[in-house]
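Narrative of activities, Objective 1.

The group set out to show that a structural description can be obtained from nothing but a protein's sequence at a throughput compatible with the screening campaign. Below is one input-output pair from the validation batch, recorded exactly as produced.
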Amino acid sequence: MAPELLYGVGALLLLIALIWGVSRGRLKSRTAEAVSEEGTREIYQEPERFDDERREELKRAAKSAEAAAEKRDKTDGA
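Output recorded for this entry:
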C-alpha cells in the first residue's frame, strides 16, 4: 500500500506544481510583457549600448507594471 500512496502524493504534487507554473506565466500584464520585449530587442540589436543601468531600469519598469496589474486584479476581484 505504501508505494501506491507515494505515487498518488507525487502525482498530486506534480499537478499542483504544473498548475502554479502555468498560472504564474499568465499573470504578467501586457505592459510588463512589452517592457520585457523592449529589453530583449535592445540586447540583440545593440548589445554594446545595453548596460547594467538600462537593464535595471527595465527590470524596475516591468516589476512596477506587474505590481500595478496585480493591484488592479485584486481590486477588480473584491
